[in-house]
Specification:
CATH architecture of the largest domain: Orthogonal Bundle
Radius of gyration: 19 Å
CATH class of the largest domain: Mainly Alpha
Largest sheet: none
InterPro entries: DNA_glycosylase, Endonuclease3_FeS-loop_motif, Endouclease-III_FeS-bd_BS, HhH-GPD_domain, HhH_base_excis_C, HhH_motif, Nth
Bound molecules: iron/sulfur cluster
Family: Belongs to the Nth/MutY family.
Protein name: Endonuclease III
Enzyme class: lyase
Cofactor: [4Fe-4S] cluster
Length: about 220
């Protein structure tokens, strides 16, 4: 089986199992998605969704966040962790959105990554999930599973993103993130991947090694 055939099978099986999935962070506007994604660093999506439910009732616009009191915002987002940096970045990010983008969230990668607290991962979440621009988001699930499945040998998220862009058709870039997250949560759980139950085992280099008792 060629590498392309293997990747096609993996993509087909992921789609059959999880379908076209949606972003796990609750949001109704692009700026809400941007703020939620900044909050999601080192935090679970479930926790972020709990916090943003009240947060977006209190701060109803980019302007509200731009004018927020740092200490108060820190308290509001405390349970997501790293609250000081996150609060500082959200305020600075929204101030720049107001000053340079008329309060709108840009879709351009360079403009997005010039905002405080916004790296390629966050920018790609917004580009893919809000603007529908093909983008690959490399989070911990995508990083781990891409290595296990033999799609990359890199550990650096940006290198992985470029590796995946080369081998995955563009129309699958948005879904691959949410599908791999779903798989990482249900079957390929970080500390105890359920390889015996996994529909990808035939195509998974890491899973086959684990089956033979090899440490990977
Ligand atoms: S075969 Fe095992 S290691 Fe590979 S994706 Fe499935 S659960 Fe993960």
């Amino acid at each position: 089986m060629t590498k392309k055939e293997k990747i096609d099978q993996i993509l087909l099986l992921l789609r059959e199992q999880y379908g076209p999935t949606r972003c796990y962070l609750d949001h109704e506007t692009p700026w809400q998605l941007l703020v939620a994604t900044i909050l999601s660093a080192q935090c679970t999506d479930d926790r972020v969704n709990i916090v943003t439910k009240d947060l977006f009732q209190k701060y109803k616009s980019v302007k509200d966040f731009a004018e927020a009191d740092l200490k108060e915002l820190e308290k509001d987002i405390h349970s997501t962790g790293f609250y000081h940096n996150k609060a500082k970045n959200i305020i600075a990010c929204c101030q720049k959105l107001l000053a340079e983008h008329n309060g709108e969230v840009p879709s351009d990668l360079e403009a997005l990554t010039s905002l405080a607290g916004v790296g390629r991962k966050t920018a790609n979440v917004v580009r893919g999930n809000w603007y529908g621009i093909p983008s690959i988001v490399v989070d911990t699930h995508v990083k781990r599973l891409s290595n296990l499945l033999g799609l990359t040998k890199n550990q650096d998220p940006v290198k992985i993103e470029f590796d995946l862009m080369k081998i995955i058709p563009e129309d699958k870039w948005i879904d691959i993130n949410t599908q791999l997250i779903a798989h990482g949560r249900k079957i390929c759980i970080a500390r105890r991947p359920k390889c015996n139950e996994c529909f990808l085992l035939t195509y998974c280099t890491g899973g086959q090694k684990l089956q033979k008792g090899k440490i990977i």
